[in-house]
Amino acid sequence: MVGIKRVRYTTQGEAYIISREIRAAQLKNPDYSILKEYFHCDSIIQNDGKLFFCNKIDYVKFEEVTEDTELIDALNSIRKTKKVKKKR
């Protein structure tokens, strides 16, 4: 599978974007550092006889956004004024 990117999660909860996948049997004594450079990836995962060329997705800390009624009211009033101007 070439060119199709998908996300894979490991048992440790890490997430990777898989950019290439090949059968491990295709390579004899591979130099992983050269393969990483060639495929522009930072990780290689071997599983089920396949090599997955991946880039690790860093954890992003985020905060849940709660509704801010003042901001919502301000945006709604801007939208209303734009609709009024268009009707004229």
Q: What helical percentage do the residues reach?
A: 25-40%
Tell me the overall shape.
elongated
User: What's the N-to-C terminus distance?
Assistant: 57 Å
Structural class: alpha+beta
Mean pLDDT: 80
- Residue ranges: pLDDT <50 for 5 or more in a row? none
**Total number of helices:** 2
Major sheet summary line: 4 strands, antiparallel
In total, the number of strands is 4
| Rg over C-alpha atoms, rounded to the nearest angstrom | 24 Å
Strand order of the largest sheet: 1-2-4-3
- Percent strand equals 25-35%
Order of helices and strands: EEHEEH
How would you characterize the overall build of this protein?
This protein is an alpha+beta fold and 88 residues long. The protein has a domain at 2-57. Helices cover 31% and strands 34% of the residues. It has a four-stranded antiparallel β-sheet, with helices on one face. A hairpin with a 2-residue loop joins strand 3 and strand 4 (50-57). It is elongated, with a radius of gyration of 24 Å. The termini are far apart. The mean pLDDT is 80.
